[in-house]
Amino acid sequence: MYALLPWKTLGTGLMIVVGLAVYADDFGAWIGVTVSDSAITRYLPMAVLAVLGIVFGLTAYWAPWRYIWRKIPQLNRMVFPDLNGVWVGTTASNWPTIEKMRNAAVSDSAIELAELHETAERHDAIAVEITASLYSFRLATGLSSMDATSYSITARPWKCQHTPGIHLAYVYEQETKDPSATDEERHMGAADLVYDPQAHDDLEGVYWTRRSWIDGLNTAGRLRLRRVSSKRDPAMSLRDYALREKVRLET
Q1: Are residues 96 and 121 in contact, defined by beta-carbon separation less than 8 angstroms?
Q2: Does the chain have fewer CB atoms within 10 Å around its N or its C terminus?
Q3: What's residue 26's pLDDT?
């Protein structure tokens, strides 16, 4: 999440720290404390690295920075948001449109463009686990409709210059057990989710896949998610979360 840090403010703070370190002996003499240059040179870098590594490097629920963020929620806007946890919601896929075009090609029958435009999207329940710290940002996904799991290969958050939203862009790889004739055992995809600091438990965006692209069957769609837990239950898989969400949506 380092890409979201307020670098101008941090740069000013770093200059102050360096200035204090350079003139530490003078400041020490002023307040009556003896501070040697050798001690500053030896211990300051270690202290800075220890704070960054221990406070900001962990992702568990009890990580020091996450505890501080829970006590001071304003830090989600001032520094970077705590996105850790399980998010559930729905996907809206254009697969029904693609399936109509495929069936028309197989039957050698014409289909009106207006009919494709009016075709309803296919909805499915989804669960996403986000793991984030100052140094890392990862996503894993489970679907209710199939025994498939996906993991981000690369992911990066970035701030939009024109809106307060934060984009979460990532490329993922999905593995599907027992794929259908129109699917693949393994394929790649990408997504771009938008996080609104004013609605810190909601995400929405778009995704697209490389699945069966050579036959023109690669899909795209929309994602809408809400955070249901700040930490994942070890007794539940992401597909379990997705199935539970599907039941909730159907009742």
Answers
A1: yes
A2: C
A3: 66
pLDDT beneath 70: ranges in the chain: 9, 20, 22-39, 41-42
- Four-CA torsion 213, 156, 121, 173, nearest 10 degrees: 40
Residue-wise DSSP of 91-146: EEESHHHHHHHHHHHHHT----HHHHHTPPPEEEEEEEEEEE-SS-EEEEEEESSS
* Among 111, 114, 82, 81, residue whose Cα is nearest residue 99: 111
Give the tokens for residue 64.
């020091």
Bridge partners of residue 188, in order along the sequence: 173
Is 164 exposed, middle or buried, given 0-12, 13-18 or 19+ CB atoms closer than 10 A?
A: exposed
Place of tokens 């009919």: 115
**pLDDT for the residue numbered 15:** 77
Q: Kindly calculate the radius of gyration of the chain based on its CA atoms and give it in whole angstroms.
A: 24
User: What SS3 class is residue 196?
Assistant: coil
Strand partners, 130: 85, 139
The amino acid present at 142, given as its one-letter code, is G
